[in-house]
Amino acid sequence: MGVEEKLRVLADRIKTHSSAMLTEEALKTAIVLPFLAALDYDVFNPDEVIPEFCADAVGKKGEKVDYAIKIDGEIRILVECKPITTVLDRVHLAQLYRYFSVTNAKFAILTNGRAFHFHTDLVATNKLDDLPFLTFDLSDLQGQLTSELKKFAKTEFNVDGILQSAHRLKYTSAIKKEIGGVMENPPEDFVRMVTGGLYQGRFTAQVKEQFTPMVKAAFREIVRESVQSRLSTALAETADSEIGDGPSDEDEVVTTEEEREGFMIVRAIVRDILKPSRIVMRDQKSYCGILVDNNNRKPLARLWFNRSVKYIGLFDGEKEEKAKIDTLDEIYDYADRLRNTAKEYLDGAIASSST
């Protein structure tokens, strides 16, 4: 099992069992140590992953950091854990500040099991930065996160390489946060700029009130259209191999863009359980079927989109349950149900005879 697969297991665990991790010790056992193990560190070797690490030079008797990781015989990563209910803040960096300055550590991780904050010394050498260069929610692994985390793996660890990425990530994250803020609450100057060629009169408070919601909506539409365009391109490139044979009277069956996008969403939800090539779309007159192995005996979901009110069909064995949805985004609300069905096919619990 690779790093990505191991992290997906932990993501599922934090989503389904977080209520059982209320103590710090439970959190360490269930999430933090497996997280370090996923990066190829031997958590059972106290010379490599040192629990309750204490350095006399800190000057505060009895103060310890939860874990110190040795690479090539030197302390390189410090890890401090807090209860899962803790909202991580700079106040929780106190111990990491002190230990970072008196060891050869180059990186520090602050975590509550769900949120992970990675810090280094980009601002002043050997002084831990207040702001992390990388933050993520373990239950929501996205984008290129796995490739960034792999750089911290024992076999890939390279200080200079990570620092280059850290510099980029720090400012990219800050820029993304600013853009997100502009998208949600467009400032007056920005609204003036993008509407300057559309409105010739004075930019009064009334004009601002009129255009600000439009600018916000336009931002969202740009993002949605960009995502839809990428999905459509991906489908066009893989349609021949991934879309199963339809019924003989296929001229009467029209596969809509919504059905194609819904298929891609379902496939993305279960991609870490079943290989994407096993997920096939087979359109019918009344619904669009999503099957495993192009097998009618292995239904994963059905998209009932050929009507004014849309439904997604969910399966527990051979029994279908329809759930009303207003937007395609609501398919993600049923991610756990879809993943559970996918796991049943993976484990062979559902009949798999071919049609």
From TrEMBL:
InterPro entries listed in its UniProt record: HSDR_N, UCP035009_HsdR_All3000-type
Domain Type I restriction enzyme R protein N-terminal: residue ranges: 58-127
Tree of life domain: Bacteria
Pfam families: HSDR_N_2
Keyword line: Endonuclease, Hydrolase, Nuclease
GO molecular function: endonuclease activity
Protein name: Restriction endonuclease
